[in-house]
């Protein structure tokens, strides 16, 4: 179920960006798309919180909400937590700009692994999705800025003008 | 950039797939947690908002939208 919701959130975010880029942020369809994406996010967060809480208490709980992990998954896709690796040095990838999203992703993943003592596909997927959502939001903001204030981006304007010059 | 009806057909198809994939979430939660559980209610709101979005997307007439320019005219 968490995977289903996570994928739905990703799709809803992409749809909201696509609709918004075509119709504008104030259009009703864009707002409906944003609302749907927001509601998926809320549901996903609550399911994750419930699953995490249940995981802590599952010795005493008969509810088994942790089973919701696999409620809508094929039987062969049960979650498989893996032990966290020992981290002795910075694992930041080399050759990338210091502001590249991969640095933040790796740092967050390792910090989470240190805190919880393990790395799971679920936690990695969640962090990656956060990075993707952040990228999409920044991309949309940048595009709006360019369209609203094109003179602030002369280098892009020059490229655009050259591209359309015969 | 023109608002291309074919693009909106593709978006509608993706949104419909998303709606289909999430349609069972409230049912699953209701069967395990009960209808009054906070999670069940949140899932119901989520599915309703997705359905509203898809319904409006399906009824949207892209060809009726004004043409939107993609480049700044003064450039």
Query: Radius of gyration of chain A, Cα only, in angstroms?
Result: 21 Å
Shape of chain B: elongated
Distance between the termini of chain A: 53 Å
Mean pLDDT score of chain B? 80
Helix content of chain B: 55-70%
Number of helices of chain A: 5
Oligomer: heterodimer
Low-confidence stretches of chain A: 59-66, 74-80
* Low-pLDDT ranges of chain B: 67-75
Radius of gyration of chain B: 18 Å
Helical proportion of chain A, percent range:
55-70%
Number of strands of chain A: 2
- Going across the major beta sheet of chain A, what is the strand order? 1-2
Total strand count of chain B, please? Answer: 0
- Beta-strand fraction estimate of chain A: under 5%
Strand content of chain B: under 5%
Average pLDDT reading of chain A: 73
Number of domains of chain A: 1
- Straight-line distance between termini of chain B: 16 Å
> Main sheet of chain B?
none
Question: Largest interface, by Cβ-Cβ below 8 angstroms: which chains and how many residues each?
Answer: A-B, 40 and 36 residues
Outline of the structure:
The complex is a heterodimer of chains A (166) and B (75). With 166 residues, chain A is mainly α.
Written account of the structure:
- The complex is a heterodimer of chains A (166) and B (75).
- Chain A contains 5 helices and 2 strands.
- Chain A is mostly helical and 166 residues long.
- Chain A has one domain (2-76, 120-163).
- In chain B, helix 1 runs antiparallel to helix 3.
- The radius of gyration of chain B is 18 Å and the shape is elongated.
- Chain B is mainly α and 75 residues long.
- Chain B has helices at residues 5-22, 25-33, 38-59.
- Helix content of chain B is 65%, strand content 0%.
- Chain B contains 3 helices and no strands.
- The longest helix of chain B is centred in the middle third of the chain and has 22 residues, at 38-59.
- Chain B has a domain at 34-62.
- Chain B starts with a helix and ends in a 16-residue tail after the last helix.
- Chains A and B meet through helix 1, helix 2 and helix 5 of A and helix 1, helix 2 and helix 3 of B.
């Amino acid at each position: 179920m968490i995977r289903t919701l996570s994928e739905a959130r990703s799709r809803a975010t992409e749809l909201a960006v696509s609709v918004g880029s075509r119709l504008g942020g104030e259009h009703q369809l864009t707002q409906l798309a944003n609302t749907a994406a927001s509601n998926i996010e809320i549901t996903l967060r609550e399911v994750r919180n419930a699953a995490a809480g249940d995981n802590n208490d599952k010795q005493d709980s008969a509810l088994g909400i942790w089973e919701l992990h696999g409620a809508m998954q094929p039987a062969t896709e049960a979650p498989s937590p893996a032990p966290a690796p020992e981290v002795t040095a910075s694992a930041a990838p080399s050759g990338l700009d210091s502001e590249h999203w991969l640095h933040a992703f790796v740092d967050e993943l390792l910090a989470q692994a240190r805190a919880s003592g393990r790395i799971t596909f679920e936690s990695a997927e969640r962090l990656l999705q956060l990075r993707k959502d952040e990228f999409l939001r920044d991309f949309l903001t940048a595009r709006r800025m360019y369209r609203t204030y094109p003179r602030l981006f002369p280098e892009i304007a020059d490229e655009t003008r050259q591209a359309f010059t015969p | 950039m023109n608002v291309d009806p074919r693009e909106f057909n593709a978006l509608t198809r993706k949104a419909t797939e998303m709606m289909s994939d999430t349609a069972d979430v409230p049912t699953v939660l209701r069967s395990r947690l009960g209808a009054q559980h906070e999670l069940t209610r949140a899932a119901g709101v989520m599915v309703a908002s997705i359905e509203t979005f898809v319904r409006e997307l399906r009824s949207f007439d892209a060809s009726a939208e004004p043409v939107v320019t993609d480049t700044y005219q003064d450039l």
